[in-house]
Amino acid sequence: MDTTLVLLHAFPLCSVMWEPQRRALEGTVRLYLPDLPGFGTESRLDGERFSMKLAARFIQHELDARKIDRCVLGGLSMGGYIAFECWRLFPERIAGMILADTKASSDTAETRSRRFDSVVNIGQGDFPGFVEDTLKTLLAEETWNEHPEVVEVARILMRTADPQSVIEAQLGLAERPDSTATLGTITAPTVVIAGRHDAIVPIDEAREMAAAIPDAGFTIIERAGHLSNLENPEEFNAAVMGLLARVDGR
Length: 250
What we know:
alpha/beta
């Protein structure tokens, strides 16, 4: 297909998390797997505080620089929050959407409080503790028991993150807007993907989100938690390919 597939990574990882998708899809579709500002190889943007809107403007700039006029845009978790901002910013350039292990709602007061607590702990030097506590919520029990190599990949990607970037992203996540009203405006073919054992985005919430998007399918990834693309890449890739086929068919 002529359209480029753009995948936005989760917090607090980087674009390397998409390696299973790169291996499976490279040669089938053009890929752009960016690091978001402050993560992976991408520097923080001087003078600007990290937010979902800032990240969407960054993606728009990078699409312009690469002369990518149309894309299928996917995001997992934080990447999904940014995908909503991208839809509001440049919907005419989005041919399809992949919303994986993400939600339209903003943070609850409890979740926001936990983010602020983590900011304090990281600021006091306990970044390793933050990594280990976060890992427990991201991965399914099956992954811990049966795929320790996946646990280690996620751990390494998180440990190599810049703690200051993690702090700034936590604050941006806590302040992100509610995107529920945006769901009904998404006219591009969409697939909502949910890990069966996602402890952060319950399946019922993901299903309701899919139902609110006019042209959305809904796929549950078995034996996976919040990082479903790493935990069960075969099923995840099949869902992505299904969406690409729908877009191509249009």
